[in-house]
Design goal:
The chain is α/β, with parallel strands linked by helices. The strands form two sheets. The protein has a seven-stranded mixed sheet. The chain has a three-stranded parallel sheet with strand order 1-2-8, with helices on one face. It starts with a helix and ends with a strand. The model has no long low-confidence stretch (mean pLDDT 94).
Length: 225
């Protein structure tokens, strides 16, 4: 958003934006018609999938908390997709807002007090910078959670489902190369992620006393034991 506001002429390549249309970065994926193009991780569309994963893990799931940074415009876009999915699954959804590092700590304590059945961690870079604190707290509080980025797997996140960001950034580098050789961003379509991964951390599940259903394990791209 800052880059869009700063220039309308210098080419800008997105590495893995959640949903560039929902937040007004571009108006058309096929023809961006401006100086911005790149790749999208489809995080908005994936929120419903993450909720389904929680439901598969916890069949009696009825209350879900979402840890989110409401200052991120992606949150509203995500909720427009997530709320209908929650209603269809008959799940009550509650947002726990955290806009600074200090607020994250407070929100985690509020989550422990509220005791939801499960937690969704929103795709947000502020939250990602505090990933160790978030994963450790949710494990300590025995709150099963689904996370959006692979980086959470390395700090003990229970389940991670999302696009492979490394692949998206490699492809973005290809766009940079093409632009430096004369291509115009307006002529390069915004491409959506096509490769997604499900990572399950059995060590964390064991710490929390959770049994992961075999059907869920069979779907995992990676299992941490």
């Amino acid at each position: 958003m800052a880059a869009k506001q700063a220039t309308s002429s210098i080419p800008v390549v997105m590495g893995a934006l959640g949903d560039p249309i929902s937040v007004g970065i571009v108006s058309n994926l096929a023809r961006p018609n401006g100086n911005i193009t790149g790749f999208a991780a489809q995080n908005v569309d994936l929120e419903g999938k993450r909720l389904e994963l929680l439901k598969d893990l916890l069949p009696h799931l009825s209350r879900v908390a979402m840890l989110a940074n409401a200052a991120n415009p992606m949150v509203d876009a995500s909720l427009r997709s997530l709320r209908p999915a929650a209603e269809q699954l008959r799940i009550k959804l509650e947002i726990f807002d955290a806009r600074t590092g200090a607020e994250i700590k407070t929100a985690l304590q509020r989550l422990n007090d509220a005791r939801p059945d499960g937690v969704l961690v929103a795709p947000d870079l502020l939250l990602l910078t505090q990933r160790r604190e978030i994963a450790e707290a949710l494990t300590k509080y025995s709150l099963p959670a689904v996370y959006p980025f692979r980086e959470y797997a390395g700090v003990g996140g229970l389940m991670i489902h999302g696009a492979n960001l490394g692949i998206l950034f490699e492809r973005a580098a290809g766009y940079v190369d093409r632009i430096l050789k004369g291509a115009k961003p307006a002529d390069l379509p915004v491409q959506l992620a096509t490769e997604f991964e499900l990572i399950i951390n059995l060590r964390t599940a064991s710490t929390m006393g959770l049994a992961i259903p075999p059907t869920l394990l069979a779907r995992a791209d990676e299992v941490i034991e």
